[in-house]
Amino acid sequence: MFDTFYDQNDLIGIQPEPCLTPFFTGNLLHEIFNYDLPQADAILAAAEQAFQMNMVKIQNEQFLIYSTREGLLQFAKTGLTDEIPEIFYHPLTVEQRIEILNGVRQCCETGVYRFLQKPLSHLPHNLHFCIRGTMGSMVFRNNTGQIIVLNIEETCLVSIFRDYLEHMNPASYCSTEKATELVDQIINDLQNNRI
Description:
The chain is of the alpha/beta class. It has helices at 26-32, 40-59, 69-78, 94-109, 155-166, 176-191, and strands at residues 11-14, 63-67, 113-115, 128-132, 135-141, 147-152.
């Protein structure tokens, strides 16, 4: 799961929910992690390193994620993200969700996280497509619940996807102001038990 040269490449992706892993660090990760797993300490250490590297990429402007309001709302409702199989962690509490959403909000302010608008706002709920450097990967859950990872090594194909995502028409996604308002509304609804 983590053997993808996180430290060497930028990251650009499109998926239903924003990438939440950069905010699963420190105490939060230790609080939600499932320690009953075999080799739990090694998995936790690898996750911590990968998730911290994602935050470094955000800070270095090497990170760009397109997602949907519905995906973020699903996380707010359940405390779960499709990015990480449920076996690895426990659902986040409302307070933990709000902590994560505040991190997402900051990334919306800087334009690192972008929310898709119609017609692109209806992504399949379990499809995650990501490009790191010259490699692409598609992660999805099949109809039997198995997680399938498809690595794309064809550089021309990866280059086409990268070009599309890096130069997406601004009309296809919310402005930074609208994106932060969207996150603020979800946080407000969580705080007031409307979700």
